[in-house]
Amino acid sequence: MQTIAQYLPEHPFFAGLDTATTDLLAGCAVNIHIRADEFLFREGTPADHFYLLRHGRIAIEVRTPGPPMVLDTVEDGDVVGWSWVVPPYLWTFDGRAVTDTSAVAFDAACLRGKCLVNPLLGYDLMMRFVRLMNQRLQSARIRLIDLYGGTNG
Amino acid sequence: MGSVADLQPGGAATLTRPDPMLPRPCVVRRVHQDTRDTYTLELEPTDGAPLAWLPGQFTMLHAFGVGEAPISISGDPSRPDRIEHTVRNVGSVTAALVAAGPGTVLGVRGPFGTGWEVGKGRGSDVVVVAGGIGLAPLRPAILELIAHRADYDRVVLLYGARTPEDILFTDDLRAWAERDGIVVEVTVDNGQHAWRGRVGLVTQLVTRAGFDAARALALVCGPEVMMRYAAQALSDRGVRPERLRLSMERNMKCGVGLCGHCQLRELFLCVDGPVLGYDRLAPLMSRAEL
């Protein structure tokens, strides 16, 4: 298995970053593993990490009076979590492992500290997360249309 | 200029067929409930003569005394003696069609329109993108791919449905993946806690699927909004517009290019379509109220 420092430069989310920067990011990251049905994060708890999924699938869920609803799933190669950049830095949904999952976990306090010291890094990272937010927002808006209703075959 | 026959509604082929406005009686042999509101009807012409059709074509399916509706053929193209239509119950005609039990006689006009032209994918990857009931018109294309599986490289089916309960042809999907060497990826818009599969847009599957976009043939069918985003995603991956084929749905009525109900600017989709290349459709799909 590749080390985090080897893995990050190959990942599309970090494309274009120089080695010094990916090494710096890797310094804030650890590998984690969770089993199916364990939670990666829970709504309302501190968003002290974001994650890069290496293997597995995470369901982003909202609690309801009945069973939780799955809003989205993310899997191999996806980035999960932007609550760490938005005060008050609390998770807004649950993240439950649907399968056994391996991920790179980035320490939010460590990254926020490095972004404060190095605003160029901060801007670069924010742009990458804004793109991610934009994709997820578009996906959510399109799904509001109820794409598959009403046609007859 | 072509022959006089080309001036006939529906082109020269119409002259060699019986009156295209006359429904051909077919008896319902079998009805299978696919989902809560969707049924597949297996029909057999009462005169015994098989109905020749191409994957992607549709018929006007007639419930006598109620009306008719355009329904894509969803069966196996190697079995012209057994015509299958998958119908979602969304109105009075489709309600009558899905209520037709074995032995009921329905009318069939057609087949009409253009096909998928699956053979154009020989020697390359084929990616099939389906949304909702749009899997039904693509099923004959997939069965044709399977019948000639060695002629194609990777075959990938990307399928989006509203909920897990709305997923069509679940037995087929399993068999295609496990037996027929097709990569089948399914996602739903709304998932309950118990659903272990994907939740999200079908276009996200396009982004991650493994296929050689520069050489691939892509076949897309679903609601038009979904097709627009799927076609854009395929195009962004590098699929060439002329190798990206979409099945358009409009208000088909006559089926022979006469009444104009299915007009999409210069196209009559019942004869020029329903299956058309993205090179022709792209400028039309982004216009409002067309």
What can you tell me about this protein's structure?
The complex is a heterodimer of chains A (153) and B (290). Chain A is 31% helix and 27% strand. Chain A has 153 residues and is of the alpha+beta class. In chain A, strands 1-8-3-6 form a four-stranded antiparallel β-sheet. In chain A, strand 4 and strand 5 form a beta hairpin. The mean pLDDT of chain A is 92. By secondary structure, chain B is α/β, with parallel strands linked by helices. Helices cover 21% and strands 29% of the residues of chain B. Chain B has seven helices and 16 strands. Chain B has helices spanning 92-98, 135-147, 170-178, 202-208, 224-237, 269-272, 278-285, and strands spanning 24-33, 38-45, 58-63, 67-72, 83-88, 105-112, 126-131, 155-161, 182-188, 191-192, 198-199, 217-221, 244-247, 263-264, 267-268, 275-277. In chain B, the strands form three sheets. Chain B has a seven-stranded mixed β-sheet, with helices on both faces. In chain B, strands 4-3-6-1-2-5 form a six-stranded antiparallel β-sheet. In chain B, strand 8, helix 3 and strand 9 (182-188) form a beta-alpha-beta unit. The two termini of chain B are 29 Å apart.
Name the descriptors.
heterodimer, A: alpha+beta, four-stranded antiparallel β-sheet, 4 helices, B: 290 residues, alpha/beta, seven-stranded mixed β-sheet, 21% helix, disordered N terminus
Low-confidence stretches of chain B are: 1-5
In DSSP terms (H or I, runs of 4 or more residues), the helix count of chain B works out at: 7
**First-to-last CA distance of chain B:** 29 Å
Helix vs. strand class of chain B: alpha/beta
Q: What's the main sheet of chain B like? A: 7 strands, mixed
- Give, in spatial order, the strands making up the sheet with the most strands of chain A: 1-8-3-6
Distance between the termini of chain A: 47 Å
| Major sheet characteristics of chain A | 4 strands, antiparallel
Order of helices and strands of chain B: EEEEEHEEHEHEEEHEHEEEHEH
Q: What share of the residues of chain A does DSSP label as strand, in percent?
A: 25-35%
The shape of chain A is: globular
Strand order in the largest sheet of chain B: 11-9-8-7-12-13-16
Given the C-alpha coordinates, what overall shape of chain B results? globular
Q: What would you call the quaternary organization?
A: heterodimer
Rg over C-alpha atoms of chain A, rounded to the nearest angstrom: 17 Å
Q: Find the biggest chain interface.
A: A-B, 26 and 45 residues
Helix percent of chain A reads 25-40%
The beta-strand count of chain A equals 8
User: How many separate helices of chain A?
Assistant: 4
